[in-house]
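Title: Request for sanity check on Very-long-chain (3R)-3-hydroxyacyl-CoA dehydratase prediction

Description:
We are preparing a figure and want to confirm that the structure record we downloaded matches what your pipeline produces today. Could someone re-run it with the sequence below and paste the raw structure tokens into this thread? We only need the token string, no images.
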Amino acid sequence: MASGEEDRTVEEKETNNKKRTKGAIATAWLTFYNIAMTAGWLVLAVVMVRYYLQKGTHKGLYKNIARTLKFSQTFALLEVGHCAIGIVRTSVIVTGVQVCSRIFMVWFITNSIRQIQNEESVILFVVVWTITEITRYSFYTFNLLNHLPYFIKWARYNMFIVMYPLGVIGELLTIHAALPYVRRSGMYSLRLPNKYNVSFDYYYFLIIVMLSYIPLFPQLYFHMLRQRRRVLHGEIVVEKDE
């Protein structure tokens, strides 16, 4: 009996040690990831400010930052993986929608249609993303290090009130500006007849994407408002199962 209990004790200790090791590795990786993403967005911010001070205009700015922006958004796909394997307790669906929508805006809208790259709406959503992501990744980094300054916590749960709507406005205006070029060029569209016997019109797809903001944006926005009440004011918020 004693031997059996000792064996169970040893097994429990080994299991606990493995969990602690995995937890330490996950924390180290997340800390590195968030520091890297904070630095990347800070570099982007510096490049944008320097460009505007030198040129005095936003025209040509997107082309100057396109490579860094595309890399940062593609790298952000790792966040979906973090949720999927459980090292971050966030909905895979919510994270996936947010990350993929930004990749879509960068790769399949702004990067693909050069005629809209100098639109003010492009600069609007890029500036909003930059401010939001510097704040968000800084929050995660300091939180993982257990040294979270209050002003970063405050910024994380207050700035979104203005930034989220501004970002959505910038994205929608950019997609709207792209519609005439998409319609004329027929880009990414598949017309009948073809060997696949399938038709796809990118123009109408973009209209559907714009309409999808109507149900999706309020859900994300009010989710953040609930999080804000919980974190800043200590309110107990009952979340519905997702």
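Thanks, this matches our download. The helical segments are 2-55, 61-75, 78-85, 92-110, 120-144, 150-156, 160-185, 202-233.
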